[in-house]
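hi got a favour to ask and not much time before my train. below you get a single protein, a line of residues and a line of whole numbers that encode the local backbone shape. could you go over both lines and see whether the tokens make sense for that sequence. a few lines back from you is plenty, here it is:
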Amino acid sequence: MKIKLKVEPNWEIWIYESYSTVPIIINGTMIFGAYNVDFKMTANIWKQLPEEYKRKIYRYNWKKVIKSMLITVTDITAYSFCFGNNIKLKNSIMMKEIYKNFDKNKWVEYFIPECDFPKAPMSIYFQYLGEVYAEVDLDELVAISDEENSYQYSIMPKLTEASNYRKERENNTGKLEQIYNEQLIIKNLVNKNIGELSKEETQKVLDNFLLIDNLKYLVEVIKKSKEFEIIISNKLRDEIEHRLRDIQIKIKTEKDEKIYQELKEILKEQLWK
């Protein structure tokens, strides 16, 4: 016996680590299948269940992971599906549409399942004015046997571990993007004429001097910082000292040796006067 439950996405059903079919859009309604869905029994779900199954769940338990369900989202105002890269998909694929009744001030929901076909990571973003329904087999909600109970409790730590890994990966990706953007700013500053650098820009380049490959440019930055009377911290001083030792080891030409000695004298005057 099947039942269509009115649910709250990302609360009563959690499709973050699940598998999903490609969503179908029909007359403003989005439909897709989902597998191995985390399920939370709430007061909202409980009141929709037949009394017979309430008694069964009282007697046994409810399943924390539902093998399969059909998700229906009504009255959508926008959607975006994106399939990530895999061996067969050389490039990512995106399908999206925004309707006239889209409200930019209303929350946009999202699921991040694994698509079953084509097999690839998938993100589903959507906004809706209607409801979200999950059609499930009622017997699927009841964990009758000990094996089913032990299965769901054994799989939950794995799902939690996978979820934590994905969140950590996303955090790390965010950090990498932030670092990349910061380095890009320094790269753009280094490409500017040294005479065009402001005091703030000179300070930023100096703080990130390890990104400067050109030894001559590093000398000019140090000179520029002296003109602006920029105070070099003890930490930065220690880092520059360490950098000087590395530079000395790698010097191969007379020209580099001359620049190194010039840099050393400038730093000696500015840092240790």
